[in-house]
Amino acid sequence: MNDAAIHRRGLMLVLSSPSGAGKSSIARTLLETEPQLAMSVSATTRAPRPGEVDGKDYHFIDIERMKGMIDQGAFLEHAKVFDNYYGTPRAPVEAALTSGKDVLFDIDWQGTQQVAANARADLVTVFVLPPSVEELEKRLRERGQDSEEVVAKRMGKAADEMSHWPEYDYVIVNRDLDVSIASVKAILSAERLKRFRQVGMADFVNKLRGA
Question: Which CATH number covers residue 184?
Answer without folding.
Answer: 3.40.50.300
